[in-house]
């Protein structure tokens, strides 16, 4: 039985389970919003229809999403109840063209964490460069050595490219200079010369988010794995991103999202030194009064987390995800893989 089918079955049994009492803030983590039917090699987000169905379910539960900053302000009051905040990482243009109109249709708000340096220089992030290289390879197959691993990559079929992507992603979780060298080696082996397009929003477009009452947050300058950087470089990545967003959008920037959730004690010190009021990670969980402000958990809500067998939206699955019903299942899998 697939993991999705198992979660769908379990969600039916968990439908009547009430979430924990007290004050609780659930922060949802999103990335891209695709046109219906659009499929990418590296599919990092939800479709327009799925996002709308998620917001419909929130509206029925009288839990229309707020910004993360609003949720944190409410949580500090310590009043019993629950709030849900939506967040979108990276700063893709489809956040403006697709996510924003859907949020406004429902009267919801959200926080958008922007990779300021890449938006400024119009450079694609490393994972988009990886996908672009695989999709535009001029050879059907290639042998390449990365990080001491000898790899045989098959790029002539969609299935082969998907396998190559899964193989290569963990090998690019390295410091920036080494990551650049590995991407260059890969591009050479695949015969790719054209640079990948930058699909992040232009600053003029991103301004619409702030004008609509959304929160603009920082997501570093270049989206590195922060724990792999020296403390001074971590501080530069965090502080400079907030400054650039303020300059370009005229926004108050009080929050930051750690890229890939990656952080260490130096990162938290840097976030505090940079003047952020809070920081969010990718660790699954809910925020409660007294939670550490510079490492707040978030819950991912991709399509697979709220669509059952056959790809149909399942409100039961979505609610179960938001209530943490499957945390134990993912925890068991993580321990088995470690």
Explained architecture:
The protein is 43% helix and 16% strand. The protein contains 13 helices and eleven strands. The strands form four sheets. It has a five-stranded parallel sheet with strand order 8-5-4-1-11. Helix 2 runs parallel beside helix 4 (93-106), helix 6 packs parallel to helix 8 and helix 10 packs parallel to helix 11. The relative contact order is 0.17.
Tell me briefly what this model is.
The protein is α/β, with parallel strands linked by helices and 338 residues long. 43% of the residues lie in helices and 16% in strands.
Measured by DSSP, the beta-strand proportion falls in: 15-25%
CATH architecture of the largest domain: Alpha-Beta Barrel
Mean pLDDT: 91
What is the level 1 CATH name of the largest domain?
A: Alpha Beta
Net shape: globular
From the 3D structure, determine the CATH topology of the largest domain.
TIM Barrel
Order of helices and strands: HEEEHHEHEHHEEHHHEHEHEEHH
Could you give the distance between the termini?
22 Å
How would you name the CATH homologous superfamily of the largest domain?
Glycoside hydrolase/deacetylase
Radius of gyration: 20 Å
DSSP strand count: 11
């Amino acid at each position: 039985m697939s993991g999705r089918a198992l979660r769908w079955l379990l969600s039916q049994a968990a439908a009547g389970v009430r979430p924990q009492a007290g004050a609780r803030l659930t922060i949802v983590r999103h990335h891209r919003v695709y046109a219906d039917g659009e499929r990418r090699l590296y599919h990092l987000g939800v479709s327009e229809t799925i996002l709308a169905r998620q917001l419909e379910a929130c509206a029925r539960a009288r839990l229309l999403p707020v910004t993360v900053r609003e949720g944190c302000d409410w949580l500090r009051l310590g009043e019993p109840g629950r709030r849900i905040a939506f967040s979108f990482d990276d700063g893709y243009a489809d956040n403006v063209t697709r996510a924003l109109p859907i949020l406004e249709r429902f009267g919801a708000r959200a926080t958008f964490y922007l990779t300021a340096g890449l938006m400024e220089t119009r450079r694609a992030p490393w994972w988009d460069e990886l996908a672009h290289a695989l999709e535009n390879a001029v050879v059907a197959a290639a042998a390449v050595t990365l990080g001491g691993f000898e790899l045989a990559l098959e790029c002539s079929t969609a299935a082969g490219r998907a396998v190559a992507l899964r193989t290569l992603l963990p090998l690019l979780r390295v410091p920036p200079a080494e990551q650049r060298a590995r991407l260059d080696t890969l591009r050479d082996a695949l015969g790719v010369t054209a640079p990948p397009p930058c699909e992040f929003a232009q600053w003029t477009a991103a301004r619409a988010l702030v004008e609509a009452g959304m929160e603009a947050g920082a997501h570093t300058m270049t989206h590195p794995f922060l724990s792999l950087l020296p403390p001074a470089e971590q501080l530069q990545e965090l502080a400079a991103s907030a400054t650039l967003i303020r300059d370009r959008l005229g926004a108050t920037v009080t929050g930051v999202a750690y890229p890939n959730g990656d952080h260490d004690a130096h990162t938290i010190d840097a976030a505090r030194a940079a003047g952020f009021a809070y920081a969010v990670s990718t660790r699954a969980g809910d925020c409660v009064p007294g939670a550490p402000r510079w490492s707040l958990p978030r819950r991912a809500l991709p399509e697979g987390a709220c669509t059952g067998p056959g790809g149909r939206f399942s409100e039961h699955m979505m609610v179960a995800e938001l209530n943490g019903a499957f945390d134990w299942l993912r925890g068991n899998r993580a321990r088995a893989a470690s």
